[in-house]
């Protein structure tokens, strides 16, 4: 009888923690060398990567195609201003709270939107995001329709403030990506991958589809809240029409689809690609959107599995989520 | 074959089960029971409601009325995952592999979400064992979407074995197998049945089915036509008229 051993990932993956740590360490020292405008750009890119990663967990794996996650971006942004300015809590602690408070909103909302499926789910989440915006506008303490400024950093010099926001964003993206990788390597990750490929079969094999989806809906709401908090920190102002804008959903869909739906690597690549595109094209007005649209169509036509699917050819996986079985070689005559 | 000790306990009791899709009746007053450890075959013409019956039993389709008991416990309010946790596994007639996951990962899903809380090592052993029994060892690391049809059917079987079922529902698992492959499959099913797993098996390859099952049921138009000893059922004039055709002989070519 042959015996087998199970391993996770390939030889490449063994070096990954080293590379991952090295990149993070390098990024941590960047504010020492980098001019302020570049630090701001890094923060924007980090936020985009967080958003893409979260939306992909929800839609790419959970099959929950939502166009209303800006609800949690908005809640996170307002929560940061509320905790930091109105409650006077340390702004970095406020950022953590801004992420966690989203779960409090996500849990009851999940019971509402999980009654819907497919297109109805998508529209339902959008409607809820709009309703939350309309409620927020009514709260005069939060600045009503004109929004509210963040004053918690006013005692800090510009250079120090931007470095502080940069480090907050770096720590956040590190934790978000690490949690995502660990999640996808866990039983929940196995369940999510099965749900991604065939929901009915997953249920028949004992995966509690609804419960897994609810869990992921709650978890990603933390990520969206953190991203919202970071946006508030870096803009120093929150305006309801901007922060609750459905544009966030459009951008997230674009990043995840061009990068590759249903992988960990795809959304990161998609977010970086989108970041460079918008950075180079944003001064060109309407042309910017046209070029973005054309590129989106081209990429999904040429590489239906997104940029990552095109590069990896389904053979490479950076984060060792795949299992590998190898037969144990038996000694002669043993 | 049924042991003396097992024959009195019902694994599955279906009573007065009804299901309509719009105006089409797919189950009308269906009642039967399967004893613990029994192998139970289902035949019937295409569109008779055979696959739907399995859907109703494992919960992928809700019934309109009627009751399904599993070891005396009503299943009606349970979803498919909960029914799997109780010990019901199934294969699909049209395989539903997790296309981008490897064969091992596919089967690991089956052994991971049981309620019996196996350790990581045990879950992996269960998956490897199920893959070995289904004859898929050359394909451990192959993405399931790249398998040919026959291996996809084997994968269906391996996944359901990994769920450690007390009742296994097989939906045309032998369809499309070659003459060389069929005995291997029959051996797996017999072995499983001998280890105490009750089997409900839908199949068009009647001689294969009859060589394994203790009892046979023929349904047509959502109704039970005949039920009982396989040979008696196959000789029933109504079954011959509706399903087999008048020149049918068991165990031989037509």
Question: Level of helix content of chain B?
Answer: 25-40%
- Structural category of chain B is alpha/beta
The beta-strand count of chain B equals: 10
Q: Considering residues with a beta carbon less than 8 A from a beta carbon on another chain, report the largest interface and each chain's count.
A: A-B, 28 and 34 residues
Measured on Cα atoms, how large is the radius of gyration of chain A? 21 Å
Number of strands of chain A: 4
At the fold tier of CATH, the topology name of the largest domain in chain B is Rossmann fold
Number of helices of chain A: 15
Given helix and strand content, the structural type of chain A is: mainly alpha
* Biggest β-sheet description of chain B: 6 strands, mixed
Poorly predicted regions of chain A are none
Query: What is the helical fraction of chain A, as a range of percent?
Result: over 70%
Series of H and E elements of chain A: EHHHHHHEHHHHEHHHHHE
Q: Oligomer, anyone?
A: heterodimer
Please indicate the percent range of residues of chain B in DSSP E strands (runs of 2 or more): 15-25%
Gyration radius of chain B, rounded: 18 Å
Mean pLDDT of chain B: 88
What form of chain B results from the Cα inertia axes? globular
Low-confidence stretches of chain B: 1-6
Your description of this structure?
The complex is a heterodimer of chains A (334) and B (254). Chain A has 15 helices and 4 strands. With 334 residues, chain A is mainly alpha-helical. Chain A has a domain at 34-245. In chain A, strands 1-4 form a two-stranded antiparallel sheet. Chain A has a two-stranded antiparallel sheet with strand order 2-3. With 254 residues, chain B is of the alpha/beta class. Chain B has 2 domains: 6-87 and 166-254, Rossmann fold (3-Layer(aba) Sandwich), CATH 3.40.50.300; 97-164, no CATH class. In chain B, the strands form 2 sheets. In chain B, strands 6-7-8-3-9-10 form a 6-stranded mixed sheet, sandwiched between helices. In chain B, strands 2-1-4-5 form a 4-stranded antiparallel sheet, with helices on one face. In chain B, helix 3 crosses helix 4 (120-133), helix 3 runs parallel beside helix 5 and helix 4 (120-133) crosses helix 5. The longest helix of chain B has 14 residues, at 120-133. Chain B is globular. The chains are: A mainly alpha (334), B alpha/beta (254). Chain A binds chain B through residues 2, 4, 6, 187, 190-191, 193-194, 196-198, 200-210, 262, 314, 322-325, and chain B through 58, 60, 79-81, 84-85, 89-90, 92, 96-102, 104-105, 108-110, 112-115, 124, 128, 137, 140-141, 143, 159, 163.
């Amino acid at each position: 009888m042959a015996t087998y051993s199970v391993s996770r990932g390939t030889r490449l993956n063994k070096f990954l923690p080293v590379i991952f740590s090295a990149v993070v360490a390098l990024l941590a020292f960047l504010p020492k060398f980098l001019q302020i405008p570049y630090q701001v750009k890094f923060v924007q890119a980090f936020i985009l990567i967080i958003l893409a990663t979260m939306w992909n967990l929800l839609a790419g794996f959970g099959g929950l195609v939502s166009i209303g996650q800006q609800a949690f971006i908005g809640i996170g942004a307002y929560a940061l201003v509320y905790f930091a300015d109105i409650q006077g809590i340390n702004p970095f602690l406020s950022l953590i709270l801004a992420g966690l408070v989203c779960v409090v909103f996500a849990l009851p909302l999940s019971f509402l939107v999980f009654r819907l499926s497919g297109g109805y789910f998508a529209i339902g989440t959008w409607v809820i995001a709009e309703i939350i915006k309309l409620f927020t506008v009514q709260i005069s303490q939060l600045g009503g329709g004109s929004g509210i400024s963040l004053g918690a950093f006013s005692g800090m010099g510009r250079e120090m403030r931007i470095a502080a926001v940069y480090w907050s964003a770096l720590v956040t993206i590190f934790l978000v990506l690490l949690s995502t990788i660990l999640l996808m390597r866990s039983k929940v990750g196995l369940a999510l991958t099965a749900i991604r490929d065939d929901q009915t079969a997953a249920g028949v094999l004992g995966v509690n589809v609804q419960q897994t989806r609810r869990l992921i809906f709650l978890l990603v709401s933390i990520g969206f809240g953190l991203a919202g908090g970071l946006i508030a920190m870096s803009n120093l102002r929150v305006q309801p029409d901007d922060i609750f804008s459905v544009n966030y959903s459009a951008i997230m869909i674009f990043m995840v689809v061009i990068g590759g739906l249903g992988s960990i690597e795809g959304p990161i690549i998609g977010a970086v690609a989108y970041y460079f595109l918008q950075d180079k094209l944003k001064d060109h007005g309407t042309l910017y959107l046209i070029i973005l649209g054309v590129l989106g169509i081209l990429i999904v036509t040429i590489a239906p599995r997104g940029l990552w699917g095109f590069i990896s050819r389904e053979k490479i996986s950076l984060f060792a989520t795949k299992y590998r079985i190898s037969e144990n070689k038996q000694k002669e005559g043993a | 074959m049924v042991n003396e000790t097992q024959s009195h306990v019902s694994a599955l009791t279906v009573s007065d089960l009804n299901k309509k899709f719009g105006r089409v009746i797919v189950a009308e007053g269906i009642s039967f029971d399967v004893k613990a450890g029994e192998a139970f075959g289902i035949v019937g013409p295409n569109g008779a409601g055979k696959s739907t019956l399995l859907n109703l039993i494992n919960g992928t389709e809700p019934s309109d009325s009627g009751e399904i008991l599993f070891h005396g416990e009503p299943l009606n309010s349970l979803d498919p995952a909960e029914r799997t946790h109780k010990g019901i596994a199934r294969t699909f007639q049209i395989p539903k592999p997790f296309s981008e996951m490897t064969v091992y990962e596919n089967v690991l899903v089956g052994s991971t979400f049981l309620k019996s809380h196996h350790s990581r090592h045990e879950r992996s052993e269960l998956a490897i064992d199920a893959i070995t029994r289904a004859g898929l060892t050359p394909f451990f690391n192959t993405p399931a979407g790249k398998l040919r049809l026959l291996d996809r059917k084997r994968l269906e079987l391996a996944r359901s074995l990994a769920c450690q079922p007390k009742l296994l529902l097989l939906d045309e698992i032998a369809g499309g197998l070659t003459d060389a492959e069929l005995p291997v499959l029959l051996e797996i099913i017999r072995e499983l049945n001998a280890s105490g797993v009750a089997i409900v098996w839908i199949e068009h390859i009647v001689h294969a089915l009859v060589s394994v099952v203790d009892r046979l049921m023929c349904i047509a138009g959502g109704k039970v036509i005949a039920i009982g000893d396989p040979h008696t059922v196959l000789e029933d004039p109504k079954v011959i008229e509706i399903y087999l055709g008048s020149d049918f002989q068991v165990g031989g070519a037509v």
